[in-house]
Amino acid sequence: MSENGRIQEAINRVGKERNIANYSALEALLDDHPNASLESIRVSIARNFTVEPLIPIVKGEFARCGLLADIYLGDYDVVASEILNKDSGLYGHNPQVLLIANWLEGISKVLTTEYLSSSANDIDREIKRVVNEIEGFISVFRTNSNAPVLINNFPLIDAPTLGILNAQLESGHTAAILKLNKELLGRLKTIPDVFIVDYFSIFAKVGINQGYDERYWHIARAPLKREMLLALGIEYAKYIRALKGKGKKCLVLDCDNTLWGGVIGEDGIHGIKLGTSHPGSGFRAFQTEILNLYNRGVLLALCSKNNEEDVLEVLDKHPDMILRRDHIAAWQINWNDKASNLSRLAEKLNIGIDSFVFADDNAFECEWVESQLPQVAVVHLQGDSSSFKRQIADNGFFDTLSFTEEDKKRSEMYISAAKSEELKNNSGSYDEYLRNLKLCAEIGAPSVTTIPRFSQLTQKTNQFNLTTFRYSEGDISRMLADPSYGVYCLKLQDRFTDLGLIGVAITKADEDVCKIDTFALSCRALGRGVEDAFMTYILEQAKLKGVKKVVGAYIPTKKNAQVADFYRKQGFKKMETREEVYCWEWNFEEKAPPLSPEWIELSLTTESK
Amino acid sequence: MSNELKLKEVFKNIFQIETSSINDETSVDTIEKWDSLKHLNLVLALEEAFNITFTEEESVEIMSYPLVKAVLGDHGISF
User: Fold this and answer.
1) Using an 8 Å Cβ cutoff, are A209 and A224 in contact?
2) 10 Å Cβ neighbour count for A5?
3) Mutual orientation of helices A226-243 and A55-64 as an angle, nearest 10°?
4) Does B10 touch chain A (CB under 8 A)?
5) CA–CA gap between residue A20 and residue A55 (Å, rounded)
6) pLDDT (0 to 100) of residue A256
7) A212/A348 Cα distance (integer angstroms)
8) Quick check: A370 and A364 in contact, CB under 8 A?
9) Sign of dihedral through CA atoms A535, A541, A542, A543?
10) Whether A261 contacts A274, CB under 8 Å
11) For a 10 Å CB count at each end of chain B, is N or C smaller?
12) Do residue A218 and residue A90 come from a single domain?
């Protein structure tokens, strides 16, 4: 078997059975084959406790997201010197992510072992000191590096000596930890791209007795038990998935024994289990969670072996369905194999099949899809329907680090895209169709409220993206403040819907030449000439700035082949002699910017720069 | 799976050695990768595989294959 095959097998084994032995075996394979076909990500870790047992699990969970963690692990308890010293190994690793792991007992005696002998004033002062210290380190790091920072908050660990009295006191230990965490969040929020890893909640979920290893805290300063190690590995991977644009976008669901109990083809609409009381209530609770995901911007699709009209009848008519036809962006309900149906859904929705999560109660279907489409995340729903919700939620497939207006509207937009597809079939000519759509584009610089969405688009857009440079919110703010950059976003409306912010571009002017650093559009906006209007605008802006040429680059990835020819189609000339990637050129001495498509009404926001 | 085999599988996964090479001579002195941090992983993996919890003393003293077997024996796992 090839090394990539062996690695994939080890990754699957970890997915099926999460245990230390499987993670260790996978780690050894990854360490031996640093050239495996996974995308590498450099991670520096600064810590004040023994995180080593966590490393195999972090590496394993990163590998499950398609990433190879290249880790620099700072020495034990030297967080300050590593971060304050620009020549430290931490910076030498040139991290793409910094992970800070702090154990409270290592930072503050007052808030841990000496809590009872401290006065309320001491404790307040100590909370401020700890928060100041952490904020100080991260501020210094931020001046030296733009890498996102993941830092944990603090769990409740010790059984308070006060016992039941603890809960009665405003100055109790629990209250102090809660206050510490709250102040930490408030202060760190002001530094761009710093994210809290919620040890507090994860410990609560796992349970302190299951999560905290007092033995190993004393023997090796390693305070985490197996259950907590596994939970944290998964948790860190969620952040990386969100930061690296590896998040999933679409949940594809089976119907029988997944959305409802029983088989619609046999039991009929009145026979299936679905309702407000047991046994149908578990399925209804599951549907409620799915609706939450829909409201968060996750696309929903159905893939079921059934007669289409039977399933649609349930969606339209069953009184206890939470999910309705309008929530479903696309479906494949037929008797074909599910892997083919998933491929068909990916085409219909125009998104990558690797952004799919497929959930089914049938082991055979799950294994079939896994074997045919290893890039799809498969959840085999097992056991009681009441646990389905957790089986989806625990994975954090759809987690993001921001929640934008566009996220809320996304599912609706895909559904109205399906409606405009209909209009396309009814309109005579394509031109007529475009005119009927009544497209309005608005171009301008992003504002404080749209920077998160701007950053998200650079991180999540894979297909219509010429360079796939990923930028954080902090990066965008810095570029906005630098006059040599042009930062543009495009909002689009048609007669059916407001698609929101769907295009981003960044240019960098350098004397006579303006470079197009980033040009990306959300796929749902394509095929309407929006990209032409956007490019025309960028060329016009560049010309206004007085440059002679605009140059662009196409950097190929596995997914952006559709824009390989983009610059040629736009009328750029390829400079064969130019060695660098910015080989597509528009020379204003030879030709003026093109005309914008007449069917798009263009408006400019005033703050545009 | 016999307890012996189960134990060897743990050693194999943690230290990346062949199960056939594991015998009563196997110890922290003969396995290159057996350092203090791998030792932590070994303890975690053993506790997981045999569903037991070592005491502090036990987890520090299991520095060879025979010692691991002996301590597991104290937890009622026979070889």
Assistant:
1) no
2) 9
3) 40
4) yes
5) 11
6) 95
7) 48
8) no
9) positive
10) yes
11) N
12) yes
Boundary (domain end) residue, out of A393, A408, A438: A393
Please give the span between the terminal C-alpha atoms of chain A, in angstroms, as a whole number. 55
Q: Exposure pattern of A58-82 as b/e (b: 16+ CB <10 Å)? A: bbbbbbbbbbbbbbbbbeebbbeeb
Q: In sequence order, what are the residues at sequence separation of 6 or more whose Cβ sits closer than 8 angstroms to the Cβ of residue A413?
A: A497, A499, A500, A524
CB contact (8 A) between residue B37 and residue A52: yes
Looking at the fold, whether A232 and A352 belong to one and the same domain comes out as no
Q: Do B48 and A229 touch (CB under 8 A)?
A: no
Question: Could you give the CA distance from residue B23 to residue A601 in angstroms, rounded to a whole number?
Answer: 79
What's the CA gap between A339 and A362, in Å, rounded?
14
Is residue A607 predicted with pLDDT exceeding 50? Answer: no
Indicate whether A271 and A228 sit together in one domain. Answer: no
- Domain tally for chain A? 3
**Contacts for B71 with CB less than 8 Å, ≥ 6 apart:** B54, B58, B61, B62
* Contacts of residue A234, Cβ cutoff 8 Å, sequence gap at least 6: A57, A61, A394, A395, A396
Q: Supply φ then ψ for residue A260, to 5 degrees.
A: -145, 160
Domains of chain B, each with CATH number or no CATH: 3-74 (1.10.1200.10)
- Predicted confidence at residue A437, as pLDDT, reads 77
pLDDT of A524 > 80? The answer is no
Question: How much is the mean pLDDT over chain B?
Answer: 91
What would the two tokens of residue A404 be?
Answer: 């934008």
Which residues in chain B are contacts of A226 at CB distance < 8 A?
Answer: 44, 47-48
What are φ and ψ of residue A356, in 5° steps?
A: -90, 140
User: Is A7 a domain residue?
Assistant: no
- Which domain range does residue A256 map to? 250-393
Q: Return the pLDDT at B4.
A: 93
In the block, residue with structure tokens 């992970």: A99
**Alpha-carbon gap, residue A16 to A224, rounded angstroms:** 23
Report the first-to-last Cα separation within chain B, whole angstroms: 12
Please give the DSSP secondary-structure letter assigned to residue A555.
-
- Residues of B with CB below 8 A from A25's CB? 12-13, 16
R_g over Cα of chain B: 11
Distance in angstroms (rounded) separating the CA atoms of residues A336 and A313: 20
Beta bridge partners of A150: A99, A195
Q: Which of B10, B16, B40 sits opposite A28 (nearest CB)?
A: B16
Q: For the domain that residue A455 is a member of, what is the CATH number?
A: 3.40.630.30
Chain-chain contact of B9 with A21 (C-beta, under 8 angstroms):
yes
Band the pLDDT of A236: cuts 50, 70, 90: very high
A387 and A468 in a common domain = no
State whether A98 and A204 are in the same domain: yes
Tallying the residues shown for chain A, one arrives at: 609
pTM for the whole structure: 0.71
Which single residue is written with the structure tokens 């954080």?
A: A472
- Rg for chain A (alpha carbons), in Å? 27
The helix or strand, by DSSP H or E, that contains position A490, with its residue range, turns out to be strand A485-493
Given CB atoms, is B31 within the 8 Å cutoff of chain A?
no
